[in-house]
Amino acid sequence: MTGVAIAQLEKRYRSHGYDEIVALENVDVTIEHGSFVTIVGPSGCGKSTLLRILAGTLERTSGQVLINGRSVNGPTREMGVVFQSPVLLPWRSVLANVTVPAEIQGMEKKAAVQRARALLATVGLSGFEDRYPAELSGGMAQRAGICRALVHQPDFLLMDEPFGALDAMTRETMNLELLRIWREQGITVVLVTHSIPEAVFLADRVIVMTPRPGRIAEILPVELPRPRTLAMFNTPEFGRHVTAIRRHFSTEAELD
Amino acid sequence: MDGSISARAHSVTIKPEKTARRVRSASLKENGLVAPILFVILMATWEVAVRVLEIPAIVLPPPSSVAMALVREVMSPSFLYHFGVTFTEIVAGFAAGAVLGIVLGVAIGQSEFLERVVYPYVVAFQTVPKVAIAPIIVIWFGYGLSSKVVITATIVFFPLLANTIAGLRSAPRDQIEMLRAHTANDWQVFHMVRLPHALPYIFAGLDIAIVLAVIGAVVGEFVGARAGLGFLILQKNFTFDMAGSFAILIVLSLIGVGLHGIIVTVQRRLLFWTSVNDRGRIATF
Ligand SMILES: Nc1ncnc2c1ncn2[C@@H]1O[C@H](COP(=O)(O)OP(=O)(O)O)[C@@H](O)[C@H]1O
Ligand SMILES: [Mg+2]
User: Fold this and answer.
1) B178 vs A77, A87, A105: nearest CB
2) The overall pTM is greater than 0.80
3) β-pairing verdict for A21-31 and B282-283
4) How many helical (H) and strand (E) elements, i.e. helices and strands, does chain A have?
5) Distance CA B241, CA B36 (A)
6) Mind listing the pLDDT tens digit of every residue in chain A (256 residues)?
7) Are A77 and B174 a contacting pair at CB < 8 A?
8) Pairwise CA distance, residues B36 & B4, whole Å
9) Where do you find CATH 3.40.50.300 in chain A?
10) Tally of domains within chain B
């Protein structure tokens, strides 16, 4: 059985001296293989916590998390992870940054470099292979970060607010690029964002989360045709989805 | 320096931005002219002052006699031997202390257990003035080269230990998490992220230690030796040859400056990704 199955997931952070923080409670969701799921909600509702548990870098307190049918207990090769900042290593060239997961996992070097070059080409970074991260713009660096998360041919791409630090124009371009990559690579994407329009634009289904304690308020199927185009942002259909999500939050200000 | 015993807490500080910027803004042209002019003015003032005030040569020799003494010393047949002895003590002690400091620093930086068990002793040892134990070391290791190497190594050891630990700890969490998420093990996290971050700290440590190494070797020779530049200084003092003493001091400081230059050059080439500001990291003790 492929995909993700989460049942009765709970995560409490124990901080010494204070009460426990319930970061996640009663989280139940399944994510089908090959789908694009976004998680949206205000700061502190447990989005990053959920993604870290999926990535295997954080232990859950209780509940079940199955990835391709196996219970998660640590990071696995099926995962590619993209963070809010690109987290490139400044002493490595762009190419050498992209091949990091392949190196870690002992992929054959030639194959890894070939795949890295191909990925860089699909995001328009051909010719930048030998540059260093300091020479890249924010958008270019995040593109390299996405290539890195894909180089070892993972089944899942986990993204934590990957475009949060980019300007609006770059962000739109990156959204379109990401949809294209998703189509081409046939992977499952789980993307965290706190932009409701972005969540709707990208997703097959939007997981709406509310804080204190972090819970899933709704899982909203997005009924917009694919491929998605920027023009869809202005359709009434799109607006209906956005409104449906927004009503979970008492004020707009709560979503930062 | 805050006088605290916890060496890690203040082992590494970053030079204020201002200093770094001033260094950068001083163009080559300015540096190239100002330094020699200042040097000439300084020397001339010194020369004139000594002559006009009729300061005796045993108190302060004029630069002209220091220069002549320098030529005389360097030309003397035994100079190369004494130079070689001290140079060997410095380099061997420096290398031994640096390797020990870095290796133990890596071990402590990787293991919480070692840090709890070993580090307090290391800090306690550091509070002992090395100059004060130099006589003991000379008794243990004799009047030859080895006692000087040991004294130098004990002085060099700590800055490298402290900076290696601090450097390994300085690796940002997000870079480590990125590696872990892609299934990196401890060794991969160490060599892919922790070590590269430790390098600027290690080089700052080396840079400080090289100066300390010169001091270590000379102190060792003062305590008891039959050869070396420190031994020569003692001899000159004995015969009230102040110009000769000054000449040897110049040789010693040239050794320090030269070795410092080598370290800075290697650092620039190896740590190309660090900004000028990052390179300003210094350790304080
Ligand atoms: N390491 C931690 N220790 C204690 N509390 C944490 C830790 N990480 C996150 N939290 C808390 O858990 C809650 C969810 O955090 P997070 O998953 O980062 O939310 P989000 O990504 O949606 O902003 C917050 O209240 C946060 O303060
Ligand atoms: Mg977050």
Assistant:
1) A87
2) yes
3) unpaired
4) 8, 10
5) 28
6) 789 999 999 999 987 777 788 999 999 999 999 999 999 999 999 999 999 999 999 999 999 999 999 999 999 999 999 999 999 999 999 999 999 999 999 999 999 999 999 999 989 999 999 999 999 999 999 999 999 999 999 999 999 999 988 888 889 999 999 999 999 989 999 999 989 999 999 999 999 999 888 999 999 999 999 999 999 999 999 999 999 999 998 664 455 5
7) no
8) 40
9) 4-78+155-255
10) 1
Contact call for residues A144 and A88 (beta carbons, < 8 A)? yes
Q: Which CATH class is domain A4-78+155-255?
A: alpha beta
How far apart are alpha carbons B203 and B263 in whole angstroms? 7
Q: Mutate which of A54, A57, A158 to disrupt the B interface (most B C-beta within 10 Å)?
A: A57
Terminal-to-terminal C-alpha distance of chain A? 37
CA-proximal residue: ligand 1, atom 9 (nearest): A49
Residue-range definition of the domain harbouring residue B135? 3-284
Q: Which CATH number characterizes residue B11's domain?
A: 1.10.3720.10
Per the rule left: phi > 0, alpha: psi between -120 and 50, beta: everything else, A10 is: beta
Radius of gyration of chain A (CA): 18
Dihedral Cα B126, B129, B130, B134, nearest 10 deg: -140
Are B41 and B63 spatial neighbours (Cβ–Cβ below 8 Å)? no
What is the interface pTM, i.e. ipTM, of the complex?
0.91
A193 lines ligand 1 (CB under 6 A): no
What is the distance between the alpha carbons of residues B222 and B215, in angstroms, rounded to a whole number?
Answer: 10
Ion ligand 2 — residues with CB < 5 Å:
A 48
Kindly give the number of the ligand 1 atom that is closest to the alpha carbon of A192.
21
